[in-house]
Amino acid sequence: MSVVKISKKTATSGPTDSTNPFEAMIERLNEAARVIKLDENVYQVMKNPSRQIVVSLPIQMDDGSIRVFEGYRIIHSTALGPSKGGIRYSMDVNPEEVKALAAWMTFKCAIAGIPYGGAKGGITCDPRSMSKGELERLTRAYTAAMSDIFGVDKDIPAPDMNTGPQEMAWIVDEYSKIKGGFTPGIVTGKPLFLGGSLGRVEATGRGVVVSALQAMEKLKLDPKKCTAVVQGFGNVGSITALHFQQAGLKVIGISDHTGAFYNEKGIDLQKAVAHRDKHKGVLKGFKGGKLITNEQLLTLKADVLAPCAMENQIRAATNADKIKAKLIVEGANGPTTARADEILTKKGITVVPDVLANGGGVTVSYFEWVQNRTGYYYREDEINKRADNWMKKAFDNVWETAQKHKVSLRIAAYIVALEKVEKAIKARGSY
Ligand code: GLU
Fold this sequence. Notes:
Blueprint: H1 8-13, H2 21-36, H3 40-47, E1 51-60, E2 66-77, E3 83-90, H4 95-112, E4 117-124, H5 132-145, E5 155-159, H6 165-179, H7 200-218, E6 227-231, H8 235-246, E7 250-256, E8 259-262, H9 269-278, E9 290-292, H10 294-298, E10 304-307, E11 327-329, H11 338-346, E12 350-352, H12 354-357, H13 360-374, H14 380-405, H15 409-428
Parallel strand pairs: 3-4, 3-5, 6-7, 6-10, 10-11, 11-12
Antiparallel strand pairs: 1-2, 2-4, 7-8, 8-9
Helix pairs in contact: 2-4, 2-15, 4-15, 5-6, 7-8, 7-13, 7-14, 13-14, 14-15
This protein binds glutamic acid.
Glutamic acid (GLU) binds at residues 84-86, 108, 158, 160, 188, 333, 358, 361-362, 365.
């Protein structure tokens, strides 16, 4: 068996501060591969996404003009099962980002212990400047273009940044029309009345907090004496903040793309949610805290920091050395660069990595898919209990792996995933 040889340059110069998410993923993959002396053949398979689809989607806008949008679906791996992963709508969507996000889904599903591979999709667009009708046409066009890629046993999309139950409902409808049969299991994160699962909307944020509490127990931090800062107030960020509060932490800072807010006495989160829901989904104008910058938010003196917004928020070039939290729990995918990881580790800060921390979402997606296939639907408390237990098991597994190899939780998480995927790749064989 030949093992991965990491080039001298990589070995001596250490991790980079690259904000290219695919490079950031590869750097961690290299590190984990080096630690476990991963088989070179498996490494090559894991390094390269198995399928990349790019489509042009001409859409009629409300003013009668046609605009052409670029859509992607990248399948990283199907070694452990059908590929799974969300679809995001953002101007930042690009092939390198989607490739990285697809690989992270492979790792995430393997770490969570669910029988899926990994994929991700996206459309480069600014959903906030589009009408509901335009978004519906775009979603339907994307579904039609991907109708032979998606499949209940092939590739199952879900929500991600700026997509939610409504987009999933359009996907079910369009796919069902094209294939001629109602197929709710084609996508997860659906509205409840279309076969969605109880607990799915809250699942990611809930899992972030479950993994944070697991880490706090290990670090001997009492939640009732701890403060938290949450970056991002979308589905993941707001639910994370609310669950932190329920667990006894005082949430002193929150933010979204319109502003960041600090209140040393604790933010009234119910008020923040009500404000957001009344003001087109944004916190702008929220009066429950002092307006601060995003930079100030991330470097606030708090015990726990949960970046739940987007990639590359913690970087060596900007803020890694100024972070004061004892624990970082990554609700977002890819918020920390590889070099920032190194700085955080040196500072003694524990990072619960994205591929572990935000796995609660895809775990309940799996439960949704199982419910669609069996036709039996669980109560919310049953779903939450199962999801919490799966998260705890995943956390313990990664924690033990980190102890065994004396590596960070991130590298341990990659190791857990690589060891599982390696077995599947080898057992299935190749041409
Ligand atoms: N988009 C979510 C993630 O990044 C959920 C994916 C899914 O449920 O398939 O984990």
